[in-house]
Amino acid sequence: MDHFELISNHFLNLPRPDVELGPPAGVVDTTTLAAHDFDVDTRTGFMPPQPPLIRLSDQWEAWEQALDDAQVRRLQLGRKPGITEDERNQSESWRAHIREMPIIPTSKLNQSELMLRRAHHVLSWTMHFYIHSLPPSPSSEIIIPAPITVPLLQISAQLQLPPVVTYSDDVLYNWAFKSPPLSDPTDSTPLPAPALDNLRCLTLFTGTRDEEEFYLTSARMELRGVEALDLMRATMDELFVGDTIALRRITQYLHALGRVIDDLAALLMTVRDGCRPDVFYSDIRPWFCGADSSSEQRRWIFEGLEDNPDLVAPTELSGPSAAQSSLVHVLDVFLGVDEYSHSNSLTGHHFVKPSSSSSTTATSSLESDKSKISFLTRMQTYMPRHHRNFLRHLSTAARPLRETVSDSHDTELLEAYNDAVSSLKRFRDGHIRIVAMYIVGPSRKAADAERVESEELQAPLKGTGGTDLVKFLKDVRDRTAAAVMNPKSECL
Question: Which residues make up the binding site for heme b (predicted)?
């Protein structure tokens, strides 16, 4: 066989899932040119190669104005301690305007993936502003008005995303250049990849540097992860060849991959330089919580479903989470660690109440189904669909790395592989430290300050994705550590 030809079932030769499976019934597959590459760029990885669209055209200006107004008014959390009457009135005035807005058609947005992404960003952020600016209420339901829900559900169906703020909305498609690079309008050469220190955010709930740094830390990690994707690609090529020289090169690539993962862990810790833990916990984090992130478990009701039979009541309403980043999932799949880190026993104890009265009878079945799916696997539903397809392709590799390492009886290769897995375990150690600093510590301070033994304070801490946070992260970390291979049992 010619070594320069890929075998028919190599993951790079498989048909795209969009072609194989197609979009849902009645949904147009609005792909970008990069869809053939799973929307993974060689310069920016899972980040888009060009800055995201910053505004929709005039037909949807009402949406843009609503989001602008929420930020200009500096809407406050409805449960903010000490909120003033003027702040409450500002929020209610803004929400009243949202309720009075027309329901704007979305069909013309289907012509452009970039416009759909911007529309999802604008409407989902607006919805979170609406929900989390509401004052405390004894009601068990939150009614979200149709001018938001109808177009958001239509756009979400096109993008195959849940109708909430996702990681792609606050990180992947929420950036621009601080200082735009000089370019010639007549030059078709792509813009350079953004430097890690030349990024700013497009949308913020609080307008604070703390919030911006929280999102940009993840964006910088995505860009640093491009080298990891390059190393994986080179390793896949050598796995196909599979001779002694190829194994030697794979050993070098795995050592390099471990160093990149260590760099990602170091970048994660830099969030401490610009984002204060107490500010994050009290002022920022509540804005992007999903329906399953609060101990209150108030049900989100999407108005307009009864008048639009083509729309489906959403069942996935978790908030944005680092677990929605494709980069770490790719590392898990490539290293063969997903069998451990994505174990179906790691569900995060997820629970969702129905988002519409019509879904009540199916609640028990939905909860039962979700309880059987690992949290990390479920979070793939929140990724851009082309990135999900990339993960699916990677998992079908004809020569899995872990299997090759196990079968090779090559001690140096095994050590390099274990070093990479150990780096991933250290990365997860770092994530646990950040959670302890930004969520566990501030939550204990809040409990001490209130000195109240309430049910809310006694409940397990939940992540914005709805997990019982600390236990889940430690379980994933420990499962990752368990993926290190024993040379005595597997390589001798």
Answer: 431
Main-chain dihedrals φ then ψ at residue 136, nearest 5 degrees: -55, 145
Nearest-angstrom CA–CA distance, 250 and 239: 8
Which amino acid is residue 132, in one-letter code? H
Residue 357, pLDDT above cutoff 80: no
Q: Binding residue per annotation — 431?
A: yes
Give the domain ranges of the chain.
17-22+43-183+193-490
pTM of the predicted structure, to 2 decimals: 0.85
Residue-wise pLDDT for 181-198, tens only, equals 877 666 667 777 889 999
Mean pLDDT of all residues belonging to the chain: 84
Cβ–Cβ under 8 Å, residues 249 and 238: yes
Question: Per residue in 88-107, is it b (16+ CB within 10 Å) or e — as a string?
Answer: eebbeebbeebeebebbebe
Q: Kindly report, residue by residue over 395-436, the tens digit of the pLDDT.
A: 888 889 999 999 998 999 999 999 999 999 999 999 999 999
Q: How far is CA 312 from CA 154, 156, 364, in A?
A: 9, 11, 18
Q: 104-108: long-range contacts at Cβ-Cβ below 8 A with a sequence spacing of 24 or more?
A: 104/59, 104/60, 104/62, 104/63, 104/147, 104/151, 105/151, 106/151, 106/154, 106/155, 106/158, 108/59
Q: How many CB atoms lie within 10 A of CB 407?
A: 11
Size (the chain), residues = 492
What is the CATH number assigned to the segment(s) 17-22+43-183+193-490?
1.20.58.480
